[in-house]
Amino acid sequence: MPRHHGKTGPDAPMLLLAVASFLVMVSAVSGLTQQITMFGPAVGDIIRFDPARIGVEASEVKSTVERQDRTVCTMDLSLIGHGGGSIILERFEPGAALPWHGHWAGPRTSGDAMDCGTSADLALSSINITFLSAGAGGYWAGDSRGTENSIQSGDRAWRRGS
To answer: What's the pLDDT tens digit per position in 96-110?
Structure first.
């Protein structure tokens, strides 16, 4: 006859600890996702380059972006800052390599063959959005009265009236 020494199943307190740890991790990830959504841009926000509003200094900062047809072009922040223009964020696809889809309208984006043109549908990474919004001085969006409000980082709750 076989003899059983010790316990044959998992230790109940260890199992409970593992389940509790998993639930805490899921809750933390959910909270982080909500914070990113709250403080980042939202669909409908506009990254507006206004030469009269922004004191753009000569800069070598350029962001390579992808058109929705998969070709690439360059956003030269110094050139755009002096010439003006805007990108409206039209769509967000969580989990995609280029989650933001927006439309550029304005003068040239680059002084070379990598110019995006005066109008382009773009697929943008979160890093592209960060560089472009920093160069523009923040996000811009219309509120319920149709007036524009500046969205500087961290002001998302104010914009939404929270």
So the answer is: 999 999 999 999 999
Neighbours of 90 (CB within 10 A): 13
Looking at this protein, which amino acid is placed at residue 62?
K
Q: Which two tokens stand for residue 137?
A: 């001085």
CA distance 153 to 158: 11
CB 65 within 8 A of CB 124: yes
- CA angle, 40 as apex, 101 and 76 as ends, to 5°? 55
- CA 47 to chain CA centroid, nearest Å: 11
Structure tokens at 42: 């939202």
Distance between terminal CA atoms of the chain? 70
